[in-house]
Amino acid sequence: LPRALSWVLSWALARPGSRVVLCCLAAGALLGGWGRSPLPPLAAALLAPLAARWWRRRREREAAARRREAVIDLCRSLACEVRAGRPPGPSLVTVLVPERAAELGRDHRAALLAAARYGGDVPGALRAAAARPGAGGLSGVAACWEVATDQGASLAAGLERVAEALRAEHDQHEELRAQLAGPRVTALMLAGLPVVGLLLGSAMGAAPLRELLHTPLGLACLGAGALLEGAGLAWTAALTRAAERSAP
Hints:
By secondary structure, the chain is mainly α. Helices cover 85% and strands 0% of the residues. It has eleven helices and no strands. The chain has helices at residues 2-13, 16-35, 39-83, 88-95, 98-101, 106-118, 122-129, 138-151, 155-203, 208-214, 216-246. Helix 3 (39-83) runs antiparallel to helix 4 and helix 10 (208-214) packs across helix 11 (216-246).
């Protein structure tokens, strides 16, 4: 049994979402032991899927940001290779090294390499890779590739313009995120004040958890506070998401 438990814990700790779930359950168990009530573990079990979902979305946003950086780097590197006089196909093979194209995904990178090496549908492979979050700039690369091959236009100049546009869009997005960081931090600090109040009350010997978890009035106050807290956090998240979506 200890070996099986150790294997389960090692497997769970290796998965980021599982670590968040375990932290929620551990916090609920500690609060339940401290307040001598089954309500905190039950609440932690109910909130654990929401915490794991939030963590997955955060990791997806971070991956999309890294993917945008990779697309900009790929555009600039490909433009440099083409300006040096190399054909577009071999130039694309050169810039699709794992250090630059790992964020595009193994399957999409393999499809791009195959199309560039063997004369396949490079624009189609670029558009397929552009479907991933953060890689939408590859659709511009595909358009430049088609125009350059069909009409003899300068591929390097088009790629440089695409890279400049993507960099400006990325900088604007990062500036907006920096401006919204203040409201997010303020909301989190306000959400943490009740916990600070519980700790201060316990330090003063008031036993707030006993009143909250073992009296009808305390349970009513706890339920109303939790609902208002969740509504405030959801409202703040909705406002910041709306501001991000409304940005050009």
